[in-house]
Amino acid sequence: MKKTLLLLANGFEEIEALSPADYLRRAGAEVTIAATGTSSRNVEGAHKILVTADITLDAYCSSAETLPDAIIIPGGNPGAKNISECAKAMEFINLMHRENKLIAAICAAPALVLSKTPVLEGKNWTCYPEMEKDLSAELQKNHKKFPVVSDGNLITARGPGAAEQFSMEIVRFLLGEEARRKTMEASVQREC
Q1: 107 an active-site residue?
Q2: Helical H segments across 31-175, by residue range
Q3: At residue 157, what are phi and psi to the nearest 5 degrees?
């Protein structure tokens, strides 16, 4: 079974976090939701929706025997910024990158979180409109204005409106095209 770690921090964008968690679980992946930068499992979203994570990131790092197959980083204001300021989260993202695991980030997360790591270097990527303008010219040259961009072990998406496409691309990457198709059909959706 494919294992995924989804990071949450106060101020996360709810649809960008819960859509991939839901679709991946429907497709048969194991999803662990970890609260970052806190000793509490309760995390408040950008729209004041309270979510209880499965575990804190500290507890996850202390107990995990192996790395997950993927890490998902939702955006949101100030959720993505809060993840970028969590040393444990940034260490874990760098470890996932070194081990060539899937890294998926949406909205503000590519610009605010992944830009502080080597993850975006040499990869095509996208983020919430206009956030790329604050980044180096080197990173900007590979920025694409598409809803979802997949490049090797990196999947990025522009924002909340791309949450379903983002989720389906993660399902496809981890579980294959047939799992993606079945998950789409089971959710009464046509191809996106």
Answers
A1: yes
A2: 57-63, 79-84, 87-98, 109-112, 137-140, 163-175
A3: -145, 160
Q: Out of 1.25.40.10, 3.40.50.880, 3.40.50.150, 3.40.50.300, select the CATH number for domain 3-183.
A: 3.40.50.880
The one-letter code for the residue type at 67 is L
Is residue 4 within 8 Å of 32, Cβ to Cβ? yes
User: What tokens appear for 71 in the block?
Assistant: 């890490």
pLDDT digits (tens, 9 = 90+) for 30-65: 999 999 988 899 999 999 999 999 999 999 999 988
Read off the pTM.
0.96
Contacts of 29 (CB under 8 A, 6+ apart): 1, 2, 3, 4, 171, 174, 175
Sign of CA dihedral 41, 106, 91, 151: positive
Say how far apart CA 38 and CA 59 lie, in whole Å. Answer: 11
Q: Which of 61, 86, 107, 127 is catalytic?
A: 107
CB 34 within 8 A of CB 56: yes
Sign of torsion over alpha carbons 7, 73, 92, 11: negative
Lookup result for tokens 């980044």: 135
